[in-house]
Backbone:
């Protein structure tokens, strides 16, 4: 089985940013992404999705390292100061490299 190296960028942030972030990801050359609802607790308190203002999303982007770095840098610069957002990256292997 042949595998190929890619980077997984995970963004956890406020659900209110979803449509804006989707536009950003498209402009920053993400070929695709997965968005799911997320709940948890952090330094800004419990985010339990009890109402829209307290709901979070998790966005996952599989891409090359250069694209992941560009997206992460852009999001840090434009959103970190004003929104609850965390980013993390992992090195992964994929089996269908043309998808990413």
Residues:
């Amino acid at each position: 089985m042949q595998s190929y190296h890619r980077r997984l960028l995970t963004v956890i942030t406020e659900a209110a940013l979803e449509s804006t972030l989707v536009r950003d990801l498209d402009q920053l050359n993400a070929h695709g992404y997965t968005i799911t609802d997320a709940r948890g607790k952090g330094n800004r308190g419990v985010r339990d999705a009890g109402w829209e203002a307290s709901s979070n999303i998790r966005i996952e982007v599989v891409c090359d390292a250069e694209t992941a770095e560009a997206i992460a840098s852009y999001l840090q610069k434009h959103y970190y100061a004003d929104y609850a957002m965390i980013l993390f990256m992992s090195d992964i292997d994929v089996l269908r490299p043309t998808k990413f």
